[in-house]
Amino acid sequence: YDDRDGWIWLDGKLVPWREANVHVLTHAMHYASSVFEGVRAYDGHIFELSWHSQRLRNSAAMLGFDLPWSVEEIDAACIETMKANNLKDAYVRPVAWRGSEQMGVSAQKTKPHMAIACWYWGQYLDPGSNGLKLDIAPWRRPAPFTAPVQAKAAGLYMIATMSKHHAEARGYQDALMFDYRGQVAEATGANAFFVKDGALHTPTPECFLNGITRQTVIKLAKKRGIEVIERAIWPEELESFEQFFLTGSAAEIVPVGSAGPWNFAVGDLTRQMQKDYADLVRGKLTL
Ligand code: PMP
C-alpha cells in the first residue's frame, strides 16, 4: 500500500503518499503503542465521523497518551484528506502512535503522531450467495483485566491477524473468536449478531470492541420493533440460531453461512438489516 499516488495527512499537513514514512525506532513499532480507526464515506459523506474521531482519542487515552488534536480537528483532517484524494466513496484510516523520541518500554518522552489515509475499498468480506464461511479461531479474546479491550489498539490485532491467517490457510474467509471464558465474542474485525425466533441476540461487549456499527444496528432493529437481546452466548447455543451476521465499518452487514460445524441461513432479518444500514449510511433513512 505504500507505492501509489495520492495524499496522506501526517501530523498536520498533506504529504505525497510515498513520503508518509516513520522511523524504524518508532515506539509504536516495538511496543504496539498505536491506535487506529476504520471509517467509511458514502457519497462524500463520512458516516459517524465524529464518533470515530472521539473513539480514536479515547483509544489513545486508554493506552496512556493524549492526542493534541480535538475531535473537530480530526474530523476536518479526514474531510481534507478525502478531498485531496478526490474520493466520495472511501475507506478512511486514521492512525495515531507514539514516536521515536525514546526507546524502551517507558514512553513518557515520546510525542504523539497522527496520520490519515483514505482509498477506495470495495466489499471487505464477500459472502457470496450463501454467506461467509468462518473458522473457529485458535486464539481467544483477552479479559478486560488483561488488555484495554475497548481501545481500537494495534496490539489487540496480533491475535486477529493470527486467527485470520489460520482460517485462510484452512480455506475459510474469517474466524469466529471466543473470549477467555469460552463465550462467543466476535470475528477478527467485526461484531456478531444471531437471529432466533425473530429476535436478535448479540454477545455483551465485555472483551471486545462495542462497534459503532453494532450500536447502530441495535438502534435500527429497535426502530423496527425487533427485540435485541445482549447477553452471554455460549458455543453450545450456536446450533439453535437460524441466522448469523457480522457488523463493522469496513465489513458493513455481512451474512454468515457457517462457523465451524454450525450452519446458518441467509434470511430475511439479515437482509432487512443490510438494507436499513445501506439506506442509513446514504442518508435515505434516519434514526
Ligand atoms: N471488532 C473488531 C475487532 C474490529 O476491528 C471492528 C472494526 N472496527 C469491529 C469490531 C466493529 O467496529 P465498528 O463497527 O466500530 O467498525
UniProtKB/TrEMBL annotation:
Signal sequence region: none
Provenance organism: Sphingomonas crocodyli
Keyword Transferase belongs to the record: yes
Keyword Transmembrane: no
Keywords: Amino-acid biosynthesis, Aminotransferase, Branched-chain amino acid biosynthesis, Pyridoxal phosphate, Transferase
GO BP field: isoleucine biosynthetic process; L-leucine biosynthetic process; L-valine biosynthetic process
Function: Acts on leucine, isoleucine and valine.
UniProt-recorded name of the protein: Branched-chain-amino-acid aminotransferase
Enzyme nomenclature, EC number: 2.6.1.42
PROSITE patterns (UniProt xref): AA_TRANSFER_CLASS_4
